[in-house]
Each structure stands twice: as C-alpha cells, then as structure tokens.
Amino acid sequence: MSGTGDAHTAHGQPPEEQAPDEQASGGVPGLTRFRQLPLRSRLALLIAVAVAFAVALSAAACWLITRDRLTEQLDTTLSTVDVPGDYVQALGARCAGTPLNVRFQPTPYTIQLVTPSGYVCTSPNKQPIPAQRADEAVADGRLASAVHTTKDENGTPMRVSTVPYRGPLTDIQGNRLAVSVAAPMDQVTDPLNQLALVLLVVAGVGVLGAATAGLWVARAALKPVDRLTAAVEHVARTQDLAIRIPTDGEDEIARLSRSFNAMTAALAASRDLQQQLIADAGHELRTPLTSLRTNIDLLERSERSGRPIPAADKEALLASVKAQMGELAALIGDLQVLSRPPETGTAGGTAAVRVVALHDIVGTALERARLRGPSLTLTADLAPWYVRAEPAALERAVVNLLDNAVKFSPSGGTIEVRLAGGALTVRDDGPGIPPEELPHVFERFWRSPSARSLPGSGLGLSIVARTAEQAGGGVRLRNAPGGGTEALLTLPGAPTPPPDIPERTGTPDAAGAANAAGAAGATGAASATGASGPAGEPRERTEPCERTEPGRTDSGRTDSGEGGTPPGIPPGA
Predict the structure, then answer these.
(1) Contact 401, 419 (CB under 8 A)
(2) Strands, sheet with 354-357, edge to edge from the N-terminal-most edge strand
(3) Closest Cα to residue 185, out of 331, 308, 78, 36?
(4) How far apart are CA 432 and CA 438, in angstroms?
(5) Three-state DSSP class for 508?
(6) By Cβ atoms counted within 10 A, which residue in 56, 185, 244, 343 is the most buried?
C-alpha cells in the first residue's frame, strides 16, 4: 500500500488536527481568531459591525427611495412632453421616404413612432430604440400607455414612455400608431452614483467612529472588570482575603463586585474559623495528651524502678488514662459529626432515623447532668413527647444543652428543665450571655471571649442547632428574666407514639437503653473508658449516653469523668 496517507504515516507525520478552539467553533478559523481577541477588541469590533450593518441598511434604503423618486420624476416629465401633430406627420413622411419641407428642431428627447408590428421611426440625429411588446400593445390599442427602461442601439440605457397617437396618420396597412418619448437614464443614474459615493464616505466615517467609540466605551465599561481581575490576581498571588472592591451602582459589574466581596469575606471567615479550630483543637488535645503522657511516664518509671504502684492508685491512674482517651475520642467525634453533609439525617431517610421518646432521652440526660454537677439542684417537668429523629444525635444535642447549663451554673445553683408540647426549656442560674454575642452562639468553633479560658471547642451548641434543623425543629438561646440563660429546643412530634410503636413505660434508664440500642455501633470512647461510681468502683450503666457516641459537649468532658476521678495524676500516685 503506497497511498498518500500511508506515506505520511511512514514518515512519522500524523494528519493535521484541529486546535481545541477551532473544534469548538466548528472548524471556522475566523471565528477562532475572533475568540482569541481581547474582550475590548471584540466589543469594539461587534459595535463596529452592528453600526456598519445599520448604516448599510439606512444607506440602501436612502438609495432605493431616491432612485424611485428620480425615476418617478423622469416618468412624469416624459408623460408631459407634448409632441405636435405636425412633428408626427413630418416624421412619418420622412420615414416613408417622402420628406416634407419641414425643419426638425433639436430636442433632448428621442421621439419615435411605433407600429403594431414593432417597426419604429426615430427622430433625426437620435439612435433608434427597439420596440418592446408593451409599445406594440399600446400601438395596437391593447394598452393605454407603457413606461419601461430599455437600451438604444448604442447600448445607452433609456427611459421610454409610450402613448397612442390620436391623429389621422397610420402605417401602410392603415394601422394606428404609438408615439414614444425617451430620455437617457443618466438623469437618474448620475445623481444616484453621487449619492452612493456620499453614503459610502459617510458610512465609512460612521463605522470608524463607531469602532473608536466602541473601543472607548468598552475600555470605560471594563475598568471595574480590570479592578476585579487585579483583585483576584492579588488574592491568588498573596492569599490576602482582606481586599475589597468598591461597588457603585446596581449594574451587573457592581453585583459581580459585591459577590466577589462576599466570597472573599466568606473565605476569610472560613479561614479564621479553621485557624480558630486548629487553636481550640490544639488546646483541647494538649490537656488530655499531657495527662496521658504523665500517667504513662509514671507507669513506665514504676516498671523500670521495680517499685510497684499501690493497687488503688494504679486503678485510679488507669481510670484517668481511660478518661483522657475518652475525651480525645469525644473531640474527634464532634468534629466528625460536624463534618458530615447537612443532608445526612432525616433528609437522607437513613435507617437510624426513627420515632424516639424525647422525654426518656431528657430523663437519661438529667441523670448524667446530676453526676456532672453534684452541687447543683436539677428540677424536671417532663411531659411525653415523641419525635422522629436519629436517637444518638438527639441524645447528644440534649446532653450538650444540659452540660452547657451545668458548666456555667454557680455552685449551689438551680437548673430547671421543662418539656411540654415539643418545647424543651433548660434554664440555669449562670451569668448569662452578652446581647452582642447571642447571634454567634450557634456558629461552629465560636467561643465567647469570656469563656476562652474554660475547656471547650465551641462545637456543642452548633451540634444542637444542626440536630434540631435535621429533625425539623429549631433552637434558640436568650437571657432569662432575673438572670441566667434559657435555652429552648423545639421539635415537631406528638404526645403519643404511632400505632405501630408501643408506648414505653418504666424508668428513664430503661427507656434510654432501648433508645440507644440502635446506635450502639457509634460508641467507642465512652464504652472503652467505662464508668466509675463516686468511689471509683465500676458499675453497670444503661443510659444511652454510655451506649452511643460519647456525650461530647462544649465543655470538652466525657462520660468517663463521672466517677469523681479527676484527670491527670491521681492523688498519691
């Protein structure tokens, strides 16, 4: 095979391929080059083309209208030319070979006689004009008149007006005659040519002016785009998200500038939150890691020195290690909860979402809160309420609300918990929240400046807000009358369970254990750490908070701290 294509292949020359831009434009090189032009040039070119098109249409319309007016004017002039009868008689005699003793006066028109057979008799010193069928029809009496454009024998365009002759003169056969009056078309074409030249010059100047004006307008209109481009390049080059673009007006460029400013502000806020998260997470991780290291070092020194630690102290030491491991796991669990997409939950229709007894969950969380705040007085008024939610997430939200109240309540204070009609109210005797900080309490990683010294990462209330939103409810905080803070969690539901779900009876712990059974796979930290009683003795727990994910709150504490064993080195170790 020795075809051309084979020869190119043999020499290592693949066939030419179209560039991507040319492929996108359908393989039209001109369109590809147009798309490669700067935006200003394209706008100026498009404006020039649009103006040229408009000028061309206007010029063509002007030229055509002028031509029609000039032609009508010439037709009117030809139709009003009076050809005397003596002139027609003399012209007919001259063409018949019997000229009369008549002198023909010069005239700017060509006058000729037309017979029905198409024979013409032309005035002296004029070029004959071949008769047309319309002229013959006028001579034959079939048409009243005829006006048309034709050429004489020299090829000069002529405008001809033919009317019947009413005199006694006839041709040899006795047929009637028609008289044609013609004039050169240069009376129309010369002005039209001059007009076309003027229009061409005006159009050229207009197009050039339009292109120049378009370039200027494009340059002025794209100045905000230049500022926006410079700002984007500055952000990409320096990572400086504090830059803002001035926004004036309500046009598209101003809206784009505002959108860019909003985007950079959101990115800056996100980066600040990430930096704050890193700082908070580092602070939160440092305490349990330091305690773990100290306790493990103590165990290691005991093994190396051969001096055993007393059994009670060793048990307390191991319990502290487990507590710190649970605290680390809880912090990681909170971050995992908040990193899940918002659709995870009721919108996703997962198997974990089911009807749960909110009053049982609150009762279990109250028991937990009493262990965390032994010096506090907790009162509860819980009416039955069933909601459709993820049990583990709902329990975490309720625990976070109560833990938040416990953390900020003074020693000997009172926490009031009330559940009625799907509204869970938690009120404490704490210092309250400054009004300017209330809008930020549910933001992720946000912490009040006055609480920065306390343990916590600012994730607890954001988890509450997320859980409430996924369950179709809401949550808000406000300063209670008389002092303290009041949290209100509202969830849609009913005071009785659906017919296919039996109403639970018994203690809150038993109900809580049933609620937590489906979420046992989410455990980890709390189950691993275990729970200890006030005297440090292990005891069996049935609360859901011991079966599900650790009840991490913004206080940074876990269930394993309930036993009264403080983190760090046990006394006497």
Answers:
(1) no
(2) 354-357, 386-389, 493-494
(3) 78
(4) 10
(5) helix
(6) 185
pLDDT surpassing 90 at residue 442: no
- Tell me the DSSP string of 277-294: HHHHHHHHHHHHHHHHHH
Residue whose C-alpha is closest to residue 510's, from 405, 344, 342, 357: 357
The answer, yes or no, to whether residue 90 has pLDDT greater than 60, is yes
High-pLDDT (> 70) share of the chain, %: 73
Exposed/middle/buried for 442, CB within 10 Å: 0-12, 13-18, 19+?
Answer: buried
Q: Which of 159, 197, 176 is closest to 72 using CA atoms?
A: 159
Closest CA to 538 of 255, 385, 319, 353: 319
Residue 88 banded pLDDT, cuts 50, 70, 90? confident
Residue whose tokens read 């037309």: 114
- Kindly state the tokens that stand for 237: 């080059």
Q: What one-letter code names the amino acid at 281?
A: A
Mean pLDDT for all residues in the chain: 76
* Alpha-helical runs (H) found in 169-251: 186-221, 223-238
Could you tell me the domains of the chain? 32-221 (no CATH), 314-563 (3.30.565.10)
Tokens, residue 373: 């705040």
Residue 224 structure tokens:
């905000």
Cα–Cα distance for residue pair 192/69, rounded to 1 Å? 11
Burial class (CB in 10 A: 0-12, 13-18, 19+), 305: exposed
Q: Cβ of 123: how many Cβ atoms within 10 Å? A: 23
